[in-house]
Amino acid sequence: MRLRSMIPAFFLACAAVTGGVALALEPSPPSASAPAEPGAKPVDPEAKRLAQALIEDILTASHAAEIYGDLQRTLRDVYIPMMREIIEGGYPGMPDPNPEMTAQLAKLLTAMDYMRKAGEELDVALAENRGAIVSDFAAQLAREASRDEIADVRAMLELPAVRKGFDVLYAASKLVTGYTYEDSRIVSEFSAWAKQLDAAKNLKGLPGLDGTPVSVPSAARVRKAQAVVEDLVRISHLEDMVARAKRFARDVYLPTAPVSEEERAKLAAQLDEFEFTYNMRKALVLALAPSVVASVLSDEDLETLHRFVLTPSFAKGFDLLGNTVVAATAFTKDDILQAQKSFDDFDRKAKVRERAKSDGEKVTDEWQALIDKWRDKLADRLSPETRRGLESSLDDLDKTGSPI
């Protein structure tokens, strides 16, 4: 097997195991795989053991089960109730749909609900067959990859940069799945309120600085605005996120970027310019913001804005964003340099091994057959009602187009 083809092959195996549902990540007990087709290459038992262990490790490191479990929960507990309330009318920030839109949204809701049912039914089937799936894919990997090739992939999986990359994907997924239904309502309420405020007051530019007349706010209103600004800065983690991004750019990206020294010098100058400009503007904005906000918002508006800012939903949103920034900037210079060297070595070994193999040796089409086998087996575990409903609802959406 071509060494560079192994990475997508391993991830195909892992995707088949999770199958889009959350499964326990404990190592599966050994399970006998289906007998190979006549004429298939024999399986090296040790290579299969290494491949099976690697698949399990990738599943753990990638947070695959956690991510899809979060997606299932979000579909069930957030998006389906949200869609139902939008159809019925009364969801904050959404106008009551007209009859045509209601019909389209109802089709989407039906498809989403059948997707939920299918996911719940497949959870059971996948839990029962997890060991067999891992065993089958490990056996196929062992037929097409040597022990050394599997060991090379494992060595890359152990790289800090690869592990941290998986953590970034997991943190980013939480930006979609980290909210509750109540969170979604609060964010929609705030969005609707902000749009109404903008429409009523035409909030463009900076009053007093863009030529528009401005009334002088009272000292009490400025203090209210000051409290809003301070709380917003505090819960947004803005200073920490910017500091992390600057450190990453200067200490990690700049010395490891694959550019000429001339380009590196230009990047360093741009970073210096950004840091100077940011610090200057930050001081100006923090000094002016309370007075500007107090001049355009009434006491009632300030109280409403402050109430939104102090909700747990707002704090959660900023926390999730901050966690993503922390994960994305956790790489060190050594992480990147080590990964670059390892991937270069991996590619070099691949070319050497490919030259040593006969011209007739090619990646087989057994992967697709294996995927088809388990796709059909799992699809057969869906109840007839769920399968018909899912297929029919998706066909309806395909014919009319999604309303979103």
List the secondary-structure elements in sequence, H or E: HHHHHHHHHHHHHHH
Give the averaged pLDDT, no decimals: 85
Class derived from helix and strand content: mainly alpha
- Return residue spans where pLDDT drops below 50 for at least 5 consecutive residues: 1-6, 20-35
How much of the residues is beta strand, in percent? Answer: under 5%
Count of runs of 4 or more consecutive helical residues: 15
Largest sheet: none
User: How does the overall form come out from the CA principal axes?
Assistant: flat
* Rg over CA atoms: 27 Å
What separation lies between the terminal Cα atoms? 43 Å
Give the proportion of residues in helices. Answer: over 70%
Let me know the number of strands.
Answer: 0
Describe, in plain words, how this protein is organized in 3D.
It contains 15 helices and no strands. The protein has 404 residues and is mainly alpha-helical. The longest helix has 46 residues, at 99-144. It is 76% helix and 0% strand. The model is unreliable at 1-6 and 20-35 (pLDDT under 50).
